Structure to design on (248 residues):
C-alpha cells in the first residue's frame, strides 16, 4: 500500500488548503475570532500553512505551524515568502501531538482536520487547551456523520476515537469542559472541490510518470477513494471547523 503522506502529496499537489474549506470560510473564521494585529496562533498539523499565512497577511497576526511532513513545510515557507509574511510566521518540522516548548500561551490554537494527532477529538482537544491563553480560542476541524453510515463505512473510520454525529460531537466538547460558540461547516460543493480535484491531480501525475514504481498503487488508491466517496462518503461525511472556548 502506498504511503499515505506520499499519496496526499500527489493528490493534493494543487491544494493550498488541505481540507474541504474555502478561502472565504478561512477569512470568516478570522472574523469570528476577531483576529487582528498582535494575535498569536499555534496551528498543529499545519499542512501547507495557508491559514497562518492568510491571517498574517490580511489580519496582521503572527504564529507558529508544526507538521511532520517536510514537503508540506517547504510549501508553507515558500508561501510565506510569496505573501511577504516570512517574519510573522514560523514553520517547524515535528510531531504536532508532542510539540516542543514554544514559550507562552497562544491566543488561538488550531488543529484543522488532523485530530489523529491526539488519538481522536478528545485527546487532541486536551493537547490544544494546554497551549492556549485563558479565554483564548480553539479551532478544531473534524469530520462528523451527516447521516448514519453503512457498517462498512463506519468500520473504515473506526480507528482511534472514531467520529460522531453533530450532537455526539457536541457531547465530546462538553465532556472536555469546552463551550462550542460557533462553527463553519463545509458545504457539499466544498467537499466536491476538495475530493474531485484530487482525482485530476492524480491523473496528471500518472500521465507524467507512467513508469514510476508507485504508479499502480497510486492509481489503485485513487480509484478506491473515488468510488468510496461517490458511493457513500459524499452523503455520510460532514466536516466543519468548530470554534471553542474553555468554560469558566
Amino acid at each position: 500500500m502506498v504511503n499515505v503522506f506520499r499519496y496526499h502529496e500527489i493528490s493534493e499537489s494543487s491544494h493550498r488548503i488541505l481540507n474541504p474549506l474555502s478561502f472565504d470560510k478561512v477569512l470568516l473564521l478570522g472574523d469570528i475570532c476577531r483576529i487582528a494585529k498582535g494575535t498569536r496562533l499555534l496551528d498543529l498539523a499545519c499542512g501547507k500553512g495557508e491559514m497562518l499565512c492568510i491571517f498574517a497577511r490580511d489580519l496582521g497576526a503572527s504564529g507558529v505551524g508544526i507538521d511532520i511532513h517536510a514537503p508540506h513545510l517547504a510549501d508553507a515557507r515558500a508561501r510565506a515568502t510569496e505573501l511577504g509574511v516570512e517574519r510573522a510566521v514560523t514553520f517547524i518540522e515535528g510531531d504536532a501531538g508532542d510539540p516542543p516548548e514554544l514559550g507562552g500561551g497562544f491566543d488561538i490554537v488550531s488543529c484543522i482536520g488532523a485530530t489523529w494527532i491526539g488519538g481522536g477529538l478528545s485527546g487532541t482537544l486536551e493537547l490544544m487547551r494546554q497551549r492556549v491563553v485563558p479565554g483564548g480560542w480553539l479551532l478544531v476541524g473534524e469530520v462528523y456523520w451527516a447521516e448514519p453510515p453503512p457498517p462498512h463505512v463506519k468500520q473504515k473510520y473506526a480507528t482511534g476515537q472514531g467520529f460522531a454525529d453533530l450532537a455526539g460531537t457536541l457531547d465530546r466538547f462538553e465532556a472536555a469542559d469546552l463551550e462550542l460558540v460557533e462553527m463553519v461547516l463545509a458545504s457539499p460543493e466544498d467537499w466536491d472541490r476538495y475530493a474531485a480535484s484530487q482525482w485530476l491531480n492524480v491523473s496528471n501525475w500518472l500521465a507524467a510518470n507512467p513508469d514510476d514504481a508507485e504508479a499502480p498503487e497510486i492509481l489503485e488508491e485513487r480509484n478506491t477513494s473515488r468510488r468510496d466517496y461517490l458511493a457513500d462518503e459524499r452523503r455520510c461525511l460532514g466536516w466543519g471547523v468548530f470554534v471553542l472556548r474553555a468554560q469558566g
